[in-house]
Amino acid sequence: MDMHAKHSISKLTIKQMAKLKHGVKGLHAIFPFTYRLWYYQTQGIKSLGIPPFTFTDGPKGINVNHSTCFPVPIARGATFDPELEERVGTAIGIEARHQGANAVGSICINIIRHPCWGRSQESYSADPYHMSVMASAHVRGLAKNTMPVVKHFACNSIENSRFKVNVNIDERTLREIYLPHFKAAIDAGAAVIMSAYNKMNGCYCGENKHLLKEILRDEWNFKGFVISDFILGCRSTVDSIKAGLDIEMPVGWYYRSWRIQHALKKQLISRKELEDSCLRIIETMHRFGVHKEFRAEPKKFVCCKEHTDLALEVAKKSIVLLKNESNTLPINRQAIKNIAIIGKHAKKVVLGDIASSAVKPPWKISLLDAIKEKFGNTCNIYYASSYHKAKRIAAKADVVILLISLTWQDEGENIPFGGGDRKKLELSPKYIALINNISNINKNCIVVLQGGSAICVDDWIDNIPALIMAWYPGMQGGRAIADVLFGDYNPAGRLPLSIPKSTKQSPAFDLKSKEVVYDYWHDYRFFDKNNIEPRFYFGYGLSYSHFRYINIKLSSASIPENGAISITITLKNEGPYDGEEVVQIYIDYRYSKINPRCKRELKGFKRIFIEKDKESSVKFQLNAQDVSWYDPESRTWRVEKMKYIILAGSSLAYLPLYAEFEIH
Hints:
Elements: H1 2-10, H2 14-20, E1 23-24, E2 40-42, E3 54-57, H3 73-77, H4 82-97, E4 103-108, H5 128-142, E5 147-153, E6 166-168, H6 171-178, H7 180-188, E7 192-195, E8 199-200, E9 203-204, H8 209-219, E10 225-227, H9 238-243, H10 257-265, H11 271-287, H12 298-301, H13 305-318, E11 320-324, E12 338-342, H14 367-375, E13 380-384, H15 387-396, E14 399-405, E15 412-415, E16 418-420, H16 429-441, E17 445-450, E18 466-469, H17 477-485, E19 515-517, H18 523-529, E20 547-554, E21 558-559, E22 564-573, E23 579-588, E24 600-610, E25 615-623, E26 629-631, E27 636-638, E28 643-649, E29 657-663
Parallel strand pairs: 3-4, 4-5, 5-7, 6-8, 6-19, 7-10, 12-13, 12-14, 14-17, 17-18, 21-29
Antiparallel strand pairs: 1-2, 2-3, 8-9, 11-18, 15-16, 20-22, 22-25, 23-24, 23-28, 26-27, 28-29
């Protein structure tokens, strides 16, 4: 293919090359209510057998037509289950291919630097290692059927000022915190990188040579191509082409033929730069089989039973049990006759943001309908959305299930009339009052939260016995929540970010900033550095079972800087139910002389199933390079020769096992 492609490109006119380098008929991207009408594409060159690049978005499912709606990525991050996430990627890729797209932008891997970020729901995590594992799994799944598109490169974690903000960041922080997951996604097989809107160190990401050329291509040897984010993702003709931005989306403005010809005439760019760019596009599409004939069968594969069953499995595995006082959950269905379900969103399903990540499945099920489905006529089920009726039904109920949900108006992509970043993490005063008043009426009040990021709970959590975080759980979310509440599923979701006690406990977050510094400290790194205890630590989550961590064993006490160590963790399920546990290992850097260096850092996790009263062992491998740090002076990754501590447990809040090893 290489020689054939090079020969074909050498014969292309500038006008023909321009057809490959910008989108067409994509202005429906401007409005959120038209964004999902159809996919976005370049023209291609049919006479030369060069197909168009056809793109659709899809963080929680394909946003054209009526596709399967999975839980949002942050919910899938909460599963801590990369094998499951690969299956989600495979399903999304299948649905994209059968609806005419050959590339899917479902891999949004910007670090959740602050939980007020409006698009936290589209990302997996606040931790670069956790993000790397989950993103790589999704890439592998997508790549079986479509070209995986990874976005937004890079440092894009503020929504309201995304078009203008300049992120000032030092090289070490960039390499260790904000880029590792992009590298991991590329190594897993990503085909396309989407650049970010924002500036980084004074230069827009779409024309940033340091990002697109020096790091992406020269260091990482990325063989795919780069597209701009939509509308304002490309800011120039010459600078963008020279930096390595291959395609302007969703329409051409700076990459129109006459602008490119003008730049060539002025010798501001070269024909070779254009040919190299087109070669990357053609070779990548050929490598993913885009040129091959494909028989689309959307009725058979889009929103099929296999995929909706998968959506239910993911939703159940994503639910995080945050509080369960006196074993309030699971609810004993034999002991109750009257159930009060309160909250307008217990009846009206909330799927998350409605802009570029919107999905409209052909059906969805609410929590109210799922509980009715589960009980039939064997129990009295009362529902209220108004406060006065809620008080009445709470007073006569054996148990109250109170569902509180954020919506696209609270958080999401910044669009007219809603979305954007959140100003605070607490619930609105009316929701706080509702929880406190209903819990005063009925002490057996269980709260279910839905949202796309952290929600502070300190204003009311002491007044309720049980709390679960359900995120935006997708089209099958109602059934998933009901299964957890009534014990048909034992929850094992874990927080992919920390939940602070209050908004003020987190670092400052300026929604309108034109200049911002991304330093080394955020989420649990920030809390550890400042000796702050959040309400719920990263990795936290309860189960209906209890797991006792018994032993940690290392294969060696000392390894060379190019070596590896095997870690075996033994634990036992001592609870009354079979269940899953997410075993997590962290590295403690207390002996490090490198400054800055975080106190603790996630370096491994595995979700395992253990029957009640049974023991199980789980193995990890840690390479010496996994604890390396980036040296800006030498521009290399270096391993500090010293003693390291491995901490193992169920979250940063519970790490009972401890072992030391040395790198010599």
